[in-house]
Amino acid sequence: MTRPPVLGVDGAVKHYDGGGVVRALDGVSFELHAGELLGIMGPSGSGKSTLLLIAGLLEPPTAGEVRIGGQRVSWPGADLDGLREVRRRRIGFVFQKPNLIPFLNATENVALALEIDDVPPGPARRHAGGLLRALGLAHRASSLPARLSGGEQQRVAVARALANDPPLILADEPTAALDSVRGRQVIALFRRIADERGAGIAVVTHDPRALDLFDRTIELSDGKLVGASTGIGGLVLQRGLSEGDVERR
Ligand SMILES: Nc1ncnc2c1ncn2[C@@H]1O[C@H](COP(=O)(O)OP(=O)(O)OP(=O)(O)O)[C@@H](O)[C@H]1O
């Protein structure tokens, strides 16, 4: 039996009331499978962040639905406060800014994500230390965020997102503040996490330089899915797709 996708977004519409109605998303559907690294591209204002907010159960859609692990969890008017557990256990978030707690060192920042989930401090710190080692940050484990470079801080943020081993990771422009070498390192890290842990990972990115590391990209314009590519090697965007046309490689 084939497993359901880790994430399914079906016909997502999101309208914001901003003087007039802003159609931030206008009927977007896609699926993300275990072990898959998906890029979400598109110009500024095309709806990429809105799509991640909806997929991450931080905003309900105006129409459409979201499925996590095959289970319908969000729809118009859904009680997202009641989904805190689903978010905490099943979704790891990485944002453009690492947002580390300044008075906690790298290990403590990562361990906190586990302690919130009732893991005792000792095991939480040991697990955090192991993750930091795996991300090449063993020598920075005791450093406060202010002593870390931008790339190191972002890797700590990735470790935090991985701490409770979520099957789904959503990242909104995690490389925007990094130079191209460090940006590529972060995407390469996601590639490894998708391959080794089987997480499904969706990354909003403007940066075409690491596209070869993705399995697939989708492109948004004015809140609509306008393109998709498979097997990036020679990136060819097929334009004019309708909803649901975008399938897994
Ligand atoms: N809370 C909000 N209230 C009103 N309008 C919003 C809100 N959030 C987003 N929008 C609008 O929805 C549209 C899509 O915004 P979104 O942030 O999703 O785009 P984006 O593709 O992520 O842009 P960028 O690449 O600049 O971050 C834009 O027109 C934006 O101004």
UniProtKB/TrEMBL annotation:
Residues 7-247 form the ABC transporter domain. CDD domains: ABC_MJ0796_LolCDE_FtsE. GO terms for molecular function: ATP binding. PROSITE patterns: ABC_TRANSPORTER_1, ABC_TRANSPORTER_2. Pfam families: ABC_tran (PF00005). Transmembrane segments: none annotated. SMART domains: AAA. Keywords: ATP-binding, Nucleotide-binding, Transport. Signal peptide: none annotated. InterPro entries: AAA+_ATPase, ABC_transporter-like_ATP-bd, ABC_transporter-like_CS, ABC_transpr_LolD-like, MacB-like_ATP-bd, P-loop_NTPase. It comes from the Bacteria. The keyword Chloroplast does not apply. PANTHER family: ABC TRANSPORTER ABCH.1, IMPORT ATP-BINDING PROTEIN. This is ABC transporter ATP-binding protein. It comes from Azospirillum oleiclasticum. The lineage of its organism: Bacteria, Pseudomonadati, Pseudomonadota, Alphaproteobacteria, Rhodospirillales.
